[in-house]
Design goal:
10 strands, Dihydrofolate Reductase, subunit A, two-stranded antiparallel ribbon, 6 helices, eight-stranded mixed beta sheet
Length: 186
């Protein structure tokens, strides 16, 4: 069975995005970029909700992304991508497939099928939905040493308690901390 991981940047007060859908508070230095490169080298399929997809496609295929983070940009652009959206649209980013209906059933089928593991990037509503259906095998949170006045919590609108156990951690020189968790029921 394929593994599904949720990966997100978080503020100290638990927000994965600011009030204007922004993540400009996140520290993404050289050490964090190296971690991203290593993660992308694993070949996981990248999963997004529509809003996160729109944010990602507005940056990663650009010359600026290729100049600032060349290996991360190459990995993001070459990766297979799935976008979950209730609103149909034509994906413009290479290697992108759109899924518009039966999202939970399709994720169950994807997990049972052979192929690469999958990683959700951002996409809080998808994380909450898949959390409620016990589809996520691992949660990776990159905690920035910053608090913002308002934003969207990563687990907004979950319907049941989520009990996690810490499996590993890493401290970056910037003060960012990576925490890896698994649900206790796995």
């Amino acid at each position: 069975m394929r593994k599904l991981t949720a990966y997100n940047f978080l503020t100290l007060n638990g927000f994965f995005k600011g009030p204007n859908e922004d993540t400009d508070w996140h520290t993404h230095g050289e050490e964090e970029a190296n971690y991203s490169e290593e993660a992308l080298a694993q070949g996981n399929i990248l999963l997004f909700g529509r809003k996160t997809y729109e944010m990602m496609v507005s940056f990663w295929p650009t010359p600026q992304a290729k100049d600032l983070f060349p290996r991360v940009a190459a990995g993001m652009n070459q990766a297979e991508k799935l976008v979950f959206s209730r609103t149909p649209f034509e994906p413009v980013w290479e290697n992108t497939q759109l899924i518009t209906d039966d999202i939970v059933d399709k994720m169950h089928a994807l997990k049972r099928s052979p192929g690469n593991d999958m990683t959700i990037l951002g996409s809080g509503s998808i994380i909450s939905l898949f959390t409620d259906h016990n589809l996520i095998d691992e949660y990776q949170f990159m905690i920035d040493p910053v608090a913002i006045p308002d934003g969207t919590p990563v687990f907004a609108n979950i319907k049941q308690k989520l009990d996690l156990q810490l499996t590993s951690s890493k401290i970056f020189n910037s003060g960012v901390v990576l925490l890896n968790y698994q649900p206790r029921n796995i």
